[in-house]
């Protein structure tokens, strides 16, 4: 399993030129002659203040916002453009597939991560005789969705955490004959707990179950390889670490799993060919027409017109991410998170995130945090996820050590 220690070691092992580029030198070149983006990269963003809240919503890079404006300008001025055939859907699917090691044909565009998981649950016919094993760190709406299916007779086991993590022995024991799906969140938005996805898949597959992973808190922030992990299905929306906007998500379905899924809804994207028989110029035939269906991932799961603008923004954002490299993004962030984990416990903050979790944020608990800190953070223009007794801190490519020290100074006032 990739841990934060592995990321830090990888950063330490970088050539001098590469490690310098991560710090400050934008003039360094890659082996291909392309400039290495310096981290922190503040020049690519226009937001005000210190944004340490990418796990909630990432701010748009300028290049992505500009792509969005161009899309809007096209919608405003170009009434001739045929968006159903002239759009960024395929480019977005290809860019996401490259980030996770998939084939673009294994990607469908859906409205959200949670909707992707609902589609997989329906396509697997989860219900009596086809159960689910999951854990308490999975997304809350997903737990509710499976819980509602449980009320209708679907077997369900939810594994409680032990010592801040999930016991894989308990996971293995919970998968019984009739378990069809193991559903996990790769990086828990609750605590930052990071699953060993390959291990989860090994356990599930050995016992005849498939695996769905919610990867919205991982895609774009840390290395993911769907091939090496063996995951069957995963999904991520674009508005967090993919640095995009709302209304679009990418659903990955391993190609050799499509045959195990049933079609649960159908729209124009899933109709491969349609022949009408309603007009005088058309050939005779059934009043309802004749058609054939597409059977690839998009044909199975894409129903209606997607958010073209969000996909245009996503392409630009993912190209920006790729220009840096997900490995370098993780390497840049790791010491920032380690600094927080070194300092905050001494200020009375109880860590919720396992020390070596490879996820992109850390979370801490302390009674009365929101009441003590909200005004101070607002005055300092620092954005984090702040709850009544919990704080989640999620730095990204535009953050440096100075941002972390500024936050620590404010947090020390609630000690």
Automatic annotation (TrEMBL):
Species whose genome carries this gene: Sphingomonas rustica
Record bears the keyword Transferase: yes
Database matches in InterPro entries: Aminotrans_V_dom (IPR000192), PyrdxlP-dep_Trfase (IPR015424), PyrdxlP-dep_Trfase_major (IPR015421), PyrdxlP-dep_Trfase_small (IPR015422)
Keyword Signal appears in the UniProt entry: yes
Record's keyword terms, sorted: Aminotransferase, Pyridoxal phosphate, Signal, Transferase
Single GO term (MF): transaminase activity
Domain Aminotransferase class V: 92-375
Pfam families, sorted: Aminotran_5
Signal peptide (from-to): 1-20
Protein name: Aminotransferase class V-fold PLP-dependent enzyme
Top-level taxonomic group: Bacteria
